[in-house]
Structure to design on (228 residues):
Protein backbone atom coordinates (compact mmCIF):
# COMPACT_ATOMS: atom_id res chain seq x y z
CA UNK A 1 0.00 0.00 0.00
CA UNK A 2 1.22 3.46 -0.96
CA UNK A 3 -1.00 6.27 0.29
CA UNK A 4 -0.90 9.98 1.02
CA UNK A 5 -3.87 11.60 2.76
CA UNK A 6 -4.93 14.94 4.14
CA UNK A 7 -7.00 14.86 7.32
CA UNK A 8 -9.10 17.66 8.79
CA UNK A 9 -9.48 15.72 12.06
CA UNK A 10 -7.25 13.91 14.52
CA UNK A 11 -6.32 10.38 13.54
CA UNK A 12 -4.84 7.33 15.28
CA UNK A 13 -1.31 6.49 14.10
CA UNK A 14 -1.58 3.07 15.80
CA UNK A 15 -4.30 2.09 13.34
CA UNK A 16 -2.18 3.24 10.42
CA UNK A 17 0.74 1.20 11.72
CA UNK A 18 -1.39 -1.93 11.94
CA UNK A 19 -2.57 -1.38 8.37
CA UNK A 20 0.96 -1.43 6.94
CA UNK A 21 2.27 -4.36 8.99
CA UNK A 22 2.91 -7.40 6.77
CA UNK A 23 4.40 -10.90 7.22
CA UNK A 24 7.19 -10.16 4.73
CA UNK A 25 8.26 -7.05 6.64
CA UNK A 26 11.04 -7.21 9.22
CA UNK A 27 11.30 -3.47 9.75
CA UNK A 28 8.96 -0.58 10.40
CA UNK A 29 9.93 3.09 10.74
CA UNK A 30 7.60 5.96 11.51
CA UNK A 31 7.99 9.69 11.89
CA UNK A 32 5.65 12.00 13.77
CA UNK A 33 5.83 15.75 13.34
CA UNK A 34 4.34 17.58 16.35
CA UNK A 35 3.34 21.17 16.92
CA UNK A 36 6.14 22.79 18.94
CA UNK A 37 5.65 25.69 21.36
CA UNK A 38 8.55 27.76 20.01
CA UNK A 39 9.80 28.76 16.58
CA UNK A 40 12.64 31.16 15.78
CA UNK A 41 12.54 32.68 19.27
CA UNK A 42 8.78 33.23 19.30
CA UNK A 43 6.39 31.50 21.69
CA UNK A 44 3.79 29.70 19.59
CA UNK A 45 0.23 29.24 20.85
CA UNK A 46 -1.23 27.22 18.00
CA UNK A 47 -0.95 26.58 14.27
CA UNK A 48 -3.21 26.65 11.28
CA UNK A 49 -2.44 24.40 8.31
CA UNK A 50 -3.96 25.09 4.92
CA UNK A 51 -3.63 22.86 1.84
CA UNK A 52 -4.24 23.19 -1.87
CA UNK A 53 -5.78 19.80 -1.56
CA UNK A 54 -6.08 18.60 -5.15
CA UNK A 55 -2.44 19.28 -5.98
CA UNK A 56 -1.20 18.36 -2.50
CA UNK A 57 -2.66 14.87 -2.91
CA UNK A 58 -1.11 14.46 -6.35
CA UNK A 59 2.32 15.64 -5.23
CA UNK A 60 2.22 13.67 -1.98
CA UNK A 61 1.37 10.47 -3.86
CA UNK A 62 4.16 11.16 -6.36
CA UNK A 63 6.64 11.45 -3.48
CA UNK A 64 5.52 8.15 -1.98
CA UNK A 65 5.74 6.47 -5.39
CA UNK A 66 9.28 7.83 -5.78
CA UNK A 67 10.22 6.43 -2.36
CA UNK A 68 8.86 3.01 -3.35
CA UNK A 69 10.87 3.15 -6.57
CA UNK A 70 14.14 4.17 -4.91
CA UNK A 71 13.99 1.86 -1.92
CA UNK A 72 12.77 -1.75 -1.71
CA UNK A 73 9.89 -1.15 0.71
CA UNK A 74 6.52 -2.87 1.07
CA UNK A 75 4.20 -0.12 2.32
CA UNK A 76 4.37 3.61 2.86
CA UNK A 77 1.70 5.94 4.19
CA UNK A 78 1.83 9.66 4.96
CA UNK A 79 -0.96 11.68 6.53
CA UNK A 80 -0.91 15.46 6.86
CA UNK A 81 -3.33 17.42 9.02
CA UNK A 82 -5.05 20.65 8.04
CA UNK A 83 -7.00 23.09 10.20
CA UNK A 84 -6.21 24.47 13.63
CA UNK A 85 -3.71 22.48 15.69
CA UNK A 86 -2.68 22.93 19.32
CA UNK A 87 0.75 22.47 20.90
CA UNK A 88 1.68 18.79 20.92
CA UNK A 89 -0.81 17.82 18.23
CA UNK A 90 0.27 15.42 15.52
CA UNK A 91 0.73 17.46 12.32
CA UNK A 92 2.23 14.87 10.00
CA UNK A 93 2.75 11.13 10.20
CA UNK A 94 4.88 8.88 7.98
CA UNK A 95 4.99 5.10 8.29
CA UNK A 96 7.10 2.72 6.20
CA UNK A 97 7.36 -1.05 6.37
CA UNK A 98 10.03 -3.02 4.54
CA UNK A 99 11.88 -6.31 4.49
CA UNK A 100 14.79 -4.75 6.37
CA UNK A 101 15.33 -1.69 8.56
CA UNK A 102 17.79 0.17 6.38
CA UNK A 103 15.41 0.80 3.50
CA UNK A 104 12.59 1.64 5.91
CA UNK A 105 14.72 4.35 7.56
CA UNK A 106 15.87 5.76 4.23
CA UNK A 107 12.42 5.80 2.65
CA UNK A 108 10.85 7.43 5.72
CA UNK A 109 13.50 10.17 5.70
CA UNK A 110 13.08 10.71 1.98
CA UNK A 111 9.30 11.03 2.29
CA UNK A 112 9.23 13.56 5.13
CA UNK A 113 11.98 15.70 3.58
CA UNK A 114 10.28 15.85 0.19
CA UNK A 115 6.83 16.43 1.70
CA UNK A 116 8.11 19.49 3.54
CA UNK A 117 9.62 21.00 0.40
CA UNK A 118 7.17 20.11 -2.35
CA UNK A 119 3.60 19.61 -1.14
CA UNK A 120 1.46 22.76 -1.30
CA UNK A 121 0.64 23.02 2.40
CA UNK A 122 1.06 26.21 4.41
CA UNK A 123 1.49 26.82 8.12
CA UNK A 124 0.43 29.91 10.00
CA UNK A 125 1.79 30.41 13.50
CA UNK A 126 -0.08 32.34 16.19
CA UNK A 127 2.17 33.86 18.85
CA UNK A 128 1.65 34.84 22.49
CA UNK A 129 1.93 38.57 21.72
CA UNK A 130 -1.06 38.41 19.40
CA UNK A 131 1.03 38.40 16.21
CA UNK A 132 0.81 35.71 13.58
CA UNK A 133 2.70 34.79 10.47
CA UNK A 134 2.89 32.38 7.54
CA UNK A 135 6.03 30.28 7.95
CA UNK A 136 8.68 30.62 5.18
CA UNK A 137 6.95 33.69 3.81
CA UNK A 138 9.91 36.04 4.15
CA UNK A 139 8.28 39.32 3.22
CA UNK A 140 4.86 38.80 4.71
CA UNK A 141 3.47 41.67 6.75
CA UNK A 142 3.16 40.02 10.14
CA UNK A 143 6.14 37.73 9.94
CA UNK A 144 8.17 37.62 13.19
CA UNK A 145 11.29 38.84 11.35
CA UNK A 146 9.52 42.06 10.53
CA UNK A 147 7.86 42.93 13.77
CA UNK A 148 10.78 44.79 15.34
CA UNK A 149 11.71 46.73 12.24
CA UNK B 1 -9.58 38.64 -23.65
CA UNK B 2 -9.67 35.37 -21.74
CA UNK B 3 -11.55 34.39 -18.61
CA UNK B 4 -9.49 32.82 -15.83
CA UNK B 5 -10.46 31.28 -12.50
CA UNK B 6 -7.97 32.09 -9.77
CA UNK B 7 -7.84 30.46 -6.36
CA UNK B 8 -5.79 31.86 -3.49
CA UNK B 9 -4.14 30.20 -0.52
CA UNK B 10 -2.24 31.28 2.59
CA UNK B 11 -0.72 34.78 2.45
CA UNK B 12 -2.19 35.46 -0.98
CA UNK B 13 -5.70 34.63 0.25
CA UNK B 14 -5.29 36.98 3.20
CA UNK B 15 -3.91 39.73 1.03
CA UNK B 16 -6.61 39.40 -1.63
CA UNK B 17 -9.32 39.17 1.01
CA UNK B 18 -11.13 36.28 -0.70
CA UNK B 19 -10.58 32.63 -1.69
CA UNK B 20 -11.12 32.93 -5.42
CA UNK B 21 -12.10 35.21 -8.26
CA UNK B 22 -12.85 35.06 -11.95
CA UNK B 23 -11.17 37.69 -14.08
CA UNK B 24 -11.12 38.76 -17.71
CA UNK B 25 -7.66 39.72 -18.83
CA UNK B 26 -5.41 40.50 -21.77
CA UNK B 27 -2.41 38.69 -20.27
CA UNK B 28 -1.14 35.54 -21.95
CA UNK B 29 1.20 33.92 -19.39
CA UNK B 30 1.11 33.14 -15.65
CA UNK B 31 4.09 35.48 -15.18
CA UNK B 32 2.13 38.40 -16.63
CA UNK B 33 -0.96 37.40 -14.68
CA UNK B 34 0.93 37.30 -11.38
CA UNK B 35 2.39 40.74 -12.06
CA UNK B 36 -1.09 42.10 -12.79
CA UNK B 37 -2.61 40.54 -9.66
CA UNK B 38 0.33 41.60 -7.48
CA UNK B 39 -0.32 45.17 -8.49
CA UNK B 40 -4.05 44.86 -7.90
CA UNK B 41 -3.92 43.07 -4.54
CA UNK B 42 -0.58 44.28 -3.16
CA UNK B 43 0.97 40.82 -2.78
CA UNK B 44 4.28 40.80 -0.88
CA UNK B 45 7.54 40.05 -2.65
CA UNK B 46 8.38 36.36 -2.31
CA UNK B 47 11.46 34.43 -3.31
CA UNK B 48 9.95 31.20 -4.61
CA UNK B 49 6.43 31.30 -5.94
CA UNK B 50 5.21 28.46 -8.16
CA UNK B 51 2.20 28.32 -10.40
CA UNK B 52 -0.38 25.59 -10.96
CA UNK B 53 -2.49 25.48 -14.11
CA UNK B 54 -5.60 23.29 -13.95
CA UNK B 55 -4.38 21.58 -10.78
CA UNK B 56 -0.90 20.67 -12.04
CA UNK B 57 2.43 22.47 -11.62
CA UNK B 58 2.90 24.72 -14.63
CA UNK B 59 5.39 26.95 -16.39
CA UNK B 60 5.52 30.69 -15.83
CA UNK B 61 5.73 31.20 -19.59
CA UNK B 62 2.92 28.80 -20.52
CA UNK B 63 0.22 30.06 -22.88
CA UNK B 64 -2.96 30.59 -20.86
CA UNK B 65 -6.25 29.36 -22.32
CA UNK B 66 -9.76 30.68 -21.80
CA UNK B 67 -11.28 28.96 -18.76
CA UNK B 68 -7.97 27.92 -17.14
CA UNK B 69 -7.83 27.56 -13.38
CA UNK B 70 -4.76 29.17 -11.85
CA UNK B 71 -3.24 28.87 -8.39
CA UNK B 72 -0.13 30.73 -7.30
CA UNK B 73 1.82 28.80 -4.69
CA UNK B 74 3.73 30.89 -2.14
CA UNK B 75 6.62 29.21 -0.22
CA UNK B 76 5.24 25.99 1.28
CA UNK B 77 5.66 24.95 4.92
CA UNK B 78 4.28 21.48 5.49
CA UNK B 79 5.41 19.06 8.14
Amino acid sequence: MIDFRIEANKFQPEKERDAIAAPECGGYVSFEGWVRNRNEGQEVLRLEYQAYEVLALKEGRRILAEAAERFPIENAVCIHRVGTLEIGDLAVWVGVSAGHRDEAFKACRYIIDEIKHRVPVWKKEYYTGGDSGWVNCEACANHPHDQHS
Amino acid sequence: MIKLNIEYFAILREQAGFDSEQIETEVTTPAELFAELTQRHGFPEMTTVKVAINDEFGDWQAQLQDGDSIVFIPPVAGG
Q: What stands out?
A: The first helix of chain B runs from residue 10 to 16. The first strand of chain B starts at residue 2 and ends at 7. The CA atoms of residues 25 and 65 of chain B lie 11 Å apart.
